C-alpha cells in the first residue's frame, strides 16, 4: 500500500503538470504515453504467441498521433491524414516475408492496437482543443481526469462499504453495482463542483460528461480485465509500482475519451 500510495502521488502530480504546463507539454507527454501504452499492448499480446508488427505499429501509432495533433498546430487540411495509410497497411506486405501459421492474427492485432490505444489518446488530446480548434484550453482534459479519478475512488469506497451485487463477475469479481453507482455519484459531485469553476458550459453538460465517464470508464476497466484474463495475465506491465502498467491505469480513458469527445462536440458545436 505504501508503494501504491507513493506511485499514485507522483503519478497524479505528473498528470496534472502535463495538462497545466501548456499545449506543447500536453502534446509531447501524451504522445509518449500513447506510444508506451501501445508498446505495452503489443508486448502483452506477444505473450499469447501472436506476433503483432511492433515496430511498424509503434511508428504508425506515433505518426497517427502527431498528424492528429498537427491539425491544431499547423492547420493543414484533414486530407493529409491519409499519409498514414501507406505505413499502416505496410504490415500486410511485411507479413508476406514471415513464416507464420497465423499471419492474419498478427496483422489483426497490429490494427487492434491503433483502435484500442492510439485513437483514444488522440481523442483525449483533442479535448484540449475542442473549445477553440487552434488554441489549447486545459479545462476539458483536467475535468475528464478529475471525474475519472473520482469515479475510480468512489467505486472503490462504495464497493468496499456496501458492495453486495456483482457487476460483471466473469471478468471482474470484485466490482459491484453499489460501487458502480457510488463511483458515478462521486463523479457527478465533482462535475457539479467544476461547473462553478469552469463556467463556459452549463452544469448539465458537465454532469452528462460525468455520467459517460463513469459508464464507459467502468466498461473500459472490464474490457481490459477481459483482455488480461484471456491472456492469463494479472497486470499489463510493471511501469507503475503497485499499480501495474499503463493500460491498467488508463483502461477507463480508452473507452471513455472517444465517447466524451463525441458527446461534447455534438452538443456544444
Assembly of the depicted chains: single chain
Query: What's the Cα radius of gyration?
Result: 19 Å
Taking the sheet with the most strands, its summary is: 2 strands, antiparallel
N- to C-terminal distance = 44 Å
Q: Any idea how many domains? A: 1
Class based on secondary structure composition and strand pairing: mainly alpha
Low-confidence parts lasting 5 or more residues at pLDDT below 50? none
Order of helices and strands: HHHHHHEEHHH
Give the strand tally. Answer: 2
Q: What's the tally of helices?
A: 9
Describe the strand arrangement of the main beta sheet, using strand numbers.
1-2
Residue share in β-strands: under 5%
Taken from the alpha-carbon principal axes, the silhouette is globular
pLDDT averaged over residues: 90
* Percent in helix: over 70%
Polypeptide structure, described:
The chain has nine helices and two strands, in the order ααααααββααα. It is mainly alpha-helical and 269 residues long. The chain has one domain. It has a two-stranded antiparallel ribbon. A hairpin with a 3-residue loop joins β1 and β2. The longest helix is centred in the C-terminal third of the chain and has 28 residues.
Please supply descriptive tags for the structure shown above:
3% strand; 9 helices; 269 residues; two-stranded antiparallel sheet; phospholipid metabolism; lipid metabolism; globular; mainly alpha; 73% helix; PC_trans
Describe the structure concisely for a colleague.
The chain has 269 residues and is mostly helical. 73% of the residues lie in helices and 3% in strands.
Amino acid at each position: 500500500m505504501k508503494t501504491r500510495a507513493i506511485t499514485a502521488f507522483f503519478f497524479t502530480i505528473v498528470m496534472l503538470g502535463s495538462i497545466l504546463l501548456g499545449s506543447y507539454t500536453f502534446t509531447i507527454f501524451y504522445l509518449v504515453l500513447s506510444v508506451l501504452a501501445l508498446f505495452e499492448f503489443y508486448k502483452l499480446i506477444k505473450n499469447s504467441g501472436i506476433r503483432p508488427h511492433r515496430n511498424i505499429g509503434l511508428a504508425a501509432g506515433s505518426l497517427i498521433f502527431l498528424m492528429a495533433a498537427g491539425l491544431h498546430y499547423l492547420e493543414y487540411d484533414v486530407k493529409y491524414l491519409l499519409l498514414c495509410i501507406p505505413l499502416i497497411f505496410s504490415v500486410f506486405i511485411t507479413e508476406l516475408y514471415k513464416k507464420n501459421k497465423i499471419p492474419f492474427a498478427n496483422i489483426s492485432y497490429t490494427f487492434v492496437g491503433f483502435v484500442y490505444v492510439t485513437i483514444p489518446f488522440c481523442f483525449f488530446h483533442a479535448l484540449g482543443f475542442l473549445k477553440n480548434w487552434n488554441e489549447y484550453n486545459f479545462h476539458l482534459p483536467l475535468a475528464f481526469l478529475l471525474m475519472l479519478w473520482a469515479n475510480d475512488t468512489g467505486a472503490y469506497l462504495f464497493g468496499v462499504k456496501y458492495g453486495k451485487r456483482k457487476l460483471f463477475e466473469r471478468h471482474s469479481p470484485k466490482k459491484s453495482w453499489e460501487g458502480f453507482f457510488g463511483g458515478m455519484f462521486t463523479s457527478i459531485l465533482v462535475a457539479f463542483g467544476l461547473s462553478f469553476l469552469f463556467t463556459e458550459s452549463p452544469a448539465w453538460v458537465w454532469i452528462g460528461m460525468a455520467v459517460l465517464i463513469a459508464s464507459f470508464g467502468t466498461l473500459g476497466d472490464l474490457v481490459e480485465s477481459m483482455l488480461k484474463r484471456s491472456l492469463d495475465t494479472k497486470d499489463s506491465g510493471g511501469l507503475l509500482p503497485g499499480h501495474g502498467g499503463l493500460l491498467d491505469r488508463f483502461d477507463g480513458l480508452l473507452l471513455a475519451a472517444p465517447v466524451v469527445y463525441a458527446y461534447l462536440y455534438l452538443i456544444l458545436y
